[in-house]
Amino acid sequence: MTARDVRAEPPVEPEPPRIGECSEAAGGLAAVGATLQHAIGEMGVSRAVRTLLRVNQGEGFDCPGCAWPEPEQGRSLAEFCENGAKAVAEEATLRRVTPDFFREHSVAELSRQPDLWLGKQGRLTHPMLLDEGATHYRPVSWDEALAIVASALRALRSPDEAIFYTSGRTSNEAAFLYQLFARELGTNNLPDCSNMCHESSGVGLREAIGVGKGTVSLHDFELADAIFVVGQNPGTNHPRMLTALREARRRGCEIVTVNPLPEVGNERFRHPQHPGDLVGPGVPLSSLFLQVRINGDVALFTGIIKEMLEEEERRPGAALDRAFIAEHTRGLEALAAAAREAPWDDIVEQSGVPRDRIRAAAEIAMRSERTIACWAMGLTQHQNGVANVQQLMNFLLLRGNIGRPGAGPCPVRGHSNVQGDRTMGIWERPPAELLDRIEANFGFSPPRHHGLDTVAAIAAMAEGRARVFFALGGNFLSATPDTALTARALARCDLTAHVSTKLNRAHLVTGKRALILPCLGRTERDVQASGPQFVTVENSMGVVSSSRGSLPPASEMLRSEVAIVAGLARATLGARSRVPWEELAADYDRVRDLIERTIPGFDDFNARVKDPRGFALPNAAARREFRTETGKANFIAHPLPRRELEPGELLMMTIRSHDQYNTTIYGLDDRYRGVRGGRRVVFMSAEDAAERGLAQGDLVDITSRFSDGERVARAFRVVLYAIPRGNVATYFPEANVLVPLGSVADKSRTPASKSIIVRIRPSADRGEST
Fold first, then answer.
1. Which of 202, 551, 645, 698 is 20 to 30 A off residue 223, Cα-Cα?
2. How far apart, in whole angstroms, are the C-alpha atoms of residue 165 and residue 188?
3. Domain 642-762: which CATH number of 3.60.20.10, 2.40.40.20, 1.10.287.70, 3.40.640.10
4. Residues β-bridged to residue 654
5. Which CATH architecture has domain 204-411?
6. Which residues contact 76 (CB under 8 A, 6 or more apart)?
7. Distant-in-sequence, close-in-space partners of 40: CB < 8 Å, separation ≥ 6
8. 468 neighbors 461 (Cβ within 8 angstroms)
9. Where is the Molybdopterin oxidoreductase domain (predicted)?
């Protein structure tokens, strides 16, 4: 509970879910049906058709879902997937949350509703204020709302008592102005959702190849001989990726998938836009499935590397690209020594993969002249997340699989512009070069000390060292680890404010005062003083493109994110600011002019972004220019990580349902895994369940242990599943309460949400989570 008697966690579900058969293939008629049902149910037939036909089109808007790129040529008429259509429908819904809604419902009452119910109430229409001690939000004007935030910021003893959080849906233009405002105010406290997902990728890649991004384009998938998909479930999280995998497999590319769960989206795909795929078994995707144990990836790729090195000793030149290694890399000797010293028994035991299958993966890699490695949260959200990424890079570097067509690393981002936000300077540890350019271009001295990342920001709020929390998008409470602690941290703030399109749980667990600031969505027209505007985004592969909504705004009271940031900056900084905030809000071309002057790679920004295909940002590593400390690509050796479990303990990872995107819940059915009508489930092996006297559907509590004590998640249902022994999986955000704030990845400080030690016991009762 928090001060207003609100609940930070979703309530326990009154009825158990229905457990049935998993889907035989991703996509197909089931995906078509789910898309139509959701889109028409939220938007109606005419609005649904008109809106969906503009998704990811050159003159349309960028999907507010994932960051998978669009093809440069030959975009289909329906360039969206099932989950993308759901994301669009959620935003373009005809339902509205008006001031009358908040008069009828107290924050405590709303907090007892499921997350699905909260999101289904519709679009927010007015700025709303929760006064200190009040139980209900009340409407306020925009001027009053911005004045409240400005007054709270000016009252701080130090700008570092403010936290400016950013969601990955924020446009480049809004993100650039947001970081500029924070730094002119005097802080680098700019945590974002990258801290919780791909931060390990950025840290690992920068040390290995000198750039924190992937190096491949979508065209490279048309050329690859082998694609390794590691710790990723594209069928649910990036469904349009399945098209690229389908085409690659059909032309003979070998696809190796590495994951603790057998995911249908990695196995077979029925392309909804290919009539021949809609019936029958679908196109098989994986050539080889390696069911690794949770966090067994370093061990697995150590084994693959060991096989490759041994083959090279037997047949020099057969397994390694010696010319590339000699000219472009450092550190092979240390990597080879670490691989030689790793015992095969330990590799097999820790990875969970038999040696003959490890050998089969190595043979695929050695046959391939062009290999792509893709990954997502399955690699990054572990204590050794950076090591996971770097071991995958070691694997690629052995055969020179970077800087050549059809090859390279491909971290697949989640939110549609999370990569762009970082490019724009949303980072608590900004490089000196960026700060130098800001100082030269805007005439103020930005702070040089590092700010707070997401985990540090929560700790600072909990300890009273941060007093104002401002979120540009997102659902901070539900997205972050350690739900109870995060709730207490937010409650200690003087003010919490959220720029949002829809109601979520973060609006209910608040500081002493709270604001909801409703903004335009991607689907909506944005008209400012100079006329209609568009914004830009950067996808997973470094391509920047425009996004232009066409629907009328859900309310005349909505403001764009750009206008909100500019208005807040003007209200807070006043005459002391040297930035022309009003002019920038009136004409986004002027924002892009400033981005061009400040951010490398954006030459002729306004001209180039008018190309419907967008333009690719420069990537030195893709040209085999490695801007590391050594001036080379670095092999970085890592020991096999060891996680000792006591008797009765299991290793838990959090995952998404097929009916959600990040913290947004679209429905209660995960048809790919055979779960319908519920979310509080724990996937476990039949052997682990039997050992604990548990059966399918039993009600259990899950506890986690950490140095600061025990955490409990109550009333979960057992789902027997083909998961390795000793491993379990749960959906987030329901299981985030089990993730300790202090359990983070080395170097990147990403929460280790996929490496949580838990115990499972029969539930004593159906008591409410608090």
1. 202
2. 11
3. 2.40.40.20
4. 730
5. 3-Layer(aba) Sandwich (3.40)
6. 273
7. 48
8. no
9. 123-495
